[in-house]
## 1
Amino acid sequence: MQPTTTYPQGPITVLSPAPAHPEDHRASAPRPAGLDGLTVGLLDNNKPGASVILKHLGELLRRRGAAEVLYWRKPHPSGPTQYVSEAAKQADIVISGVGDCGSCSSWSLRDALDVEAQGRPTVTLVSQPFLQKTRIEADALGLAEAPIFAVEHPMATRSDDNLRIEAESLLDAITKSLVRAG
């Protein structure tokens, strides 16, 4: 029952954004020992600049030993997609993003966590203003330790070269989140 206060205009009910029944803690998917021979999945949420960052990360991971890079692009940034189950079946590790607004950062995280729940390690990319919000959501969804990385905001106005440089700066941290330390 939500607290209700009566005013001359009528009752006002205060709603809490906290889930009534927080999801149980989810376990992270097991991380492989290294990149050698793995298939990398890139789950692009269709935001400007996302394809540049994700595809460059895929190429950099291939240079580090990944065997193949698969790419899926959602038709819309926010909302569910059949690509989540495809990524979980076809890729060994998955990068989801790049969320640079409230709803698309939520869906990039949700997509990643749904892949992770199917046993594939993931990371989520969001822009800096949405990093803290996305971490809070990961906690509420049961995986507080979900790897989430921030890119500079806004992405839509940045050059492709600048986005590739950003991908390079995140490569080591993303790699460490996707595979076991060796």
## 2
Amino acid sequence: MKKYCYILLILIFVFTVILVGCDKKEFSITYELDGGKLESAITKFTKEDLPITLPEPTKDGYQFLGWYLDEDFSGEQITQVTEAKNIKVYAKWEEIIDYSVVDEIANYILDNTPNLITKDFELITSHSKYQFDIVYSSQNSLITNDGITFSTNEQETTLEFVITHNGISKRYSKNVTIAALSEQEIFDLIAKHIIDNIPAKTDKNVEFVKSYLGYNFEVEIISSNVNAINSEGVIKQRGVSQSVALYINITMNGRTEGYDTSITILPVNTPNMLADLEKWINENVEEIIAKEEGILPKEDGIFGIELRWYANQPGVIGGMNNLNVAVVPGEVTLTCEYKIGVTTYTQEFKYQSRGLRIEDKSQYIDNFFKNLIPETLDFRTNIIYDQELEIIQSIVPANSPNQIRPKDDKGNGVSMPGGPMWVVIHDTGNPTPGADAAMHNRYIHNQANSPDGRVASWHYTVDDKEIYQHVPDTEQAWHAGDNDLGVLKYGNRNGIGIETCINPENDYELTLRRTAKLTAQLLYKYNLGLDSVVQHWHFSQKNCPAVIRANGWWQDFKDMVARELFLIIINDNKNNSHVLEWTIDKPEILGYNGKKLSTPLEDEIVTITLKVQLEGFTNTYTYQVFVPGMSEEYRFDTIHRELYALTSKTVTGDISLPIEYQEYNATILWISSNPEILDEKGKYTKPEKLTIIKLTAVITINNKTIRREYSVAVK
């Protein structure tokens, strides 16, 4: 029995030793400090040491947020170790941000932002000591970084702004009241914003501002020189410096106010432009020419420069700038013309046209007439001359005393070597009443019969009623020059000279149409292209034909010739076998000479009817032509110019201030800045000293109103 008791005591002792040994087992704590440090910390512990409070580490510039068991801090924060096991804890930190500088900037802004914000206040965006970024906002977006939206009523709002300095950002706010402005002050604010965004000088297209903050308005910008920069801000002429006035009309709440500014278009490097233009044009017409089908570009895609296209054969370029096959097979010269600054450049393309197929002829003619009359009337339209030409033969003798008609050793006229190469257009330079074709016929014969007569001769003289021929087509005459001063040579030796009469009673528009028909007949007769029609100027640099050149009508005239030549070619050289009959329903607006006779006050539609009879082809065409009336902008601008001229710059008595322009359907209300001295009716009261007064004209047309100011000095 004692034996068993001893054994039991031994077992109890052994188990006690084992249990005591287990209680003294060590565990570890690992601290992940992420750059922080601990002054002292428990890293080993036994169960008897539990619970253990975790120490608080430190890290320069950071605040300790607590210990976590997960590296991503996704679990709960712990402050004690309560279990006997190995453990790893992670320190979480937050950077200690010094807002003192940001607060200093904010206090400066808050102190300098008034409680009542007026139009003169500008949002603060800078500080004398610090660089910073700021973003403004408010309720209803009344305040943004772009500015403050005012209205005609006071508005209360909370101004908010976020300041960022050296990567530190903080939001602040302040309750403010936005002052009420008059409608005129709001117009002026919008205008200032638009004008401030127009550069004073540029060589690049301008994107005009058409919106601002929360204001609901429309803006129209009118260029005083659309050939330099148009109303969309596209620069058209880049080769020379040009100053252009821009007129700005702002419409809001049914009211329009006018403002103006100016912009200088700077020249660019012309050689570089030319190279880029030529490359662009080549790339964009190559396929069109190869197919003889497509629309030729009206402006380039780089600079927006207008491109004009011409062909030496009629019908090749259609009314919509479409390229067609030539009527007959053969070489075609296609010319692209454009301007850089004041200099005109050309680019030529020569190719062989396959010519018109017989089965396509009727459709070709139909397309020609369908596209004959443009949809909008500008200065003139394409009324083809519908009468036969009667040419009065009055040939100057070759044996005249002064050789006004050159003669050979046999007493005959001197033939052109190789035949006619040019048709040379002149005008008589004689605006004397009665200086018509008959008078010039008498003149050339009188000079020919006088030994001292002027040695000048030409082939034809044309007016609105008669045509005289003085020299045979294939003989030389003294009218253009043969030297090398101009672009071309042999104006006398190979040029048929046509003089157009410019006497005041002569209808020059009709004269040009008759001359175009004569020119086309000569081109066909001598197998010449449209590029053979030239001005006197080309041979001798003389400003002739002066009237055509002064008015910019040369290409219009060549277009007339092209249409006449087309009819001759398409009609198989039956010059006068076609019949054209025109009817115009408003001849007071559009004359039968094709010229616009008047501009209507409002837009009009003119109906033109054309009956065509060609051999094997008969049809009637009706054209509805839009004739723009006097635009409101034109009327406003015209009235403004007239008022500027009428408004005396120095006033010493009563002045007359017009209150309406019936011809423009306009009324005018005047406002004086000092009615005690000069009132809105122009009544004058002598001031004590010279006083500058602003007279404001409120001009109204069709419920649209603009204001224009005129400064006058009142003595």
